[in-house]
Amino acid sequence: MSEADGPCEHRWVTTRLWVMFFLQWATQGVYGTLLGRCLLAPVEVGGLGFTPNEVGLLFGLPGTLAALVSPLIGGQLSDRYFPTQRFLGTLQLVLGALLWVLPSQKRFAVWLALLVVISLAYGPTVSLANALAFAHLRDPKKQFAWARLGGTIGWIVANWGFPMLWLQTDLHLRWLPPFIVGTEVPNVTARLLDAVRVGACLSVLFGLYTFTLPHTPPKRQGVDPLAFRKAFKLFRHRSFLVLAIAGPVIGAIHGIYFWYTSQFLSTLGLRDSDIQPAMSTGQIAEILFMVVLPWLLRRLGFRWVIALGVFAYALRFAIFGTTWLPVGVIIASQGLHGVCFACFYTATFIYIDRLADADIRASAQSLISIVFGLAPLLGGTLSAQLAKGFTRAGVLQFSPFWYSLAAIGLLATLFVATFFREDTPSGDKA
């Protein structure tokens, strides 16, 4: 790592990686929490009026197709043929163009086709960014959480900035979150899709910035000419197999949270312009848990940290299902998202990097992304069936909807806590 030989140079590289994650997650965060509301809201109020089955297909099919194809290609190409930072930057520029076109479309079939292409381009980007960061951090177990914290802050800035600047006027301060509020603009629901075009602009900016990151060349020298084939040997590790089984289940309920929470909060009386700041409560808590994650890993180990992250999903959905609770309590419970993401997803990425040999780390990250990529199809199917089963007189009953997801989260927690055991790279139990 020639660019980070000295302490000052290394801090500078770490800061640049922090900015990389900031731009990456601001790009997705500015529109990700609003898509469910945009797609499910009736046409007469400015939404697209898609059915739960259509929404399940839109979120499920493109994500799973991309997960089964693009990370494999992305990991193989970046491990063997192309510098990681250039490949990542090119994908982001393509995504910017596609996202710019998406909001102007009104037909379900067109949305489905575009989301398939967008997902294919987006699929490799998370694992590529992770692999790039791991390649330039001296101690990923301690430093990755801090670098990834930039993504959390980027998500929060995007989720607070867009509604403040685009969905409201006459802004003023108040002592409760989101602290800066105003009067909603007319036809506010119809303006929610503008967030996708903001995401397009951020994607282009991110893509250009990526070309300035430290050079991360492909590893042409390796004992196996196919990095991805070697990465499949990770399934010999019991811990990897447990994560591969539990990951799609957790990813499914994770996706349903993002697809349906905006609509759920609307039924509780929140304004459309307040949904993003309310949901970003989870990312604010994520900052704390990203900071303490290295300490938690040292004290508890990967097994119990990951199990804690899974249990947080069950607890949050149980609180959501208790719809008679005050709205403030339900909003505050989204702080559990910080535990969910840091303790499950981030800890998993760190663990996979530790488990994999150096020459296949990008492919290892891509492999776990492929396995987790089964989650969108599973989540889309599950959410459609739950929405159908718990809809009465055309109205979705959210209480049993969320309680069902809480039960799934609890079963997944018991599975991880019972069967996960840490493995060393050699395959011995740690």
> In this structure, how is the largest beta sheet organized?
2 strands, antiparallel
The secondary structure category is mainly alpha
What is the number of helical segments per DSSP (H or I, 4+ residues)? 18
Average pLDDT confidence is 87
CATH architectural designation = Up-down Bundle
Give the termini separation.
28 Å
- The arrangement of helices and strands along the chain is HHHHHHHEEHHHHHHHHHHEEH
Q: Which runs of at least 5 residues are low in confidence (pLDDT < 50)?
A: 426-430
Q: Into how many domains do the coordinates divide? A: 1
The first-level CATH class is given as Mainly Alpha
Question: CATH superfamily, please?
Answer: MFS general substrate transporter like domains
User: What is the fold named in CATH at topology level?
Assistant: Growth Hormone, Chain: A
Helix fraction bin: over 70%
Give structural notes.
With 430 residues, this protein is mostly helical. It has one domain (2-419): Up-down Bundle (Growth Hormone, Chain: A). 73% of the residues lie in helices and 3% in strands. The chain has 18 helices and four strands. The protein has helices at residues 7-32, 35-40, 52-80, 84-101, 108-122, 125-136, 140-166, 188-191, 194-210, 227-231, 238-267, 272-279, 281-321, 327-332, 336-355, 361-372, 374-389, 398-419, and strands at residues 168-173, 180-184, 391-392, 395-396. A two-stranded antiparallel sheet has the order 1-2. A two-stranded antiparallel ribbon has the order 3-4. A hairpin with a 2-residue loop joins β3 and β4 (395-396). The longest helix has 41 residues, at 281-321. It is globular, with a radius of gyration of 21 Å. The model is unreliable at 426-430 (pLDDT under 50).
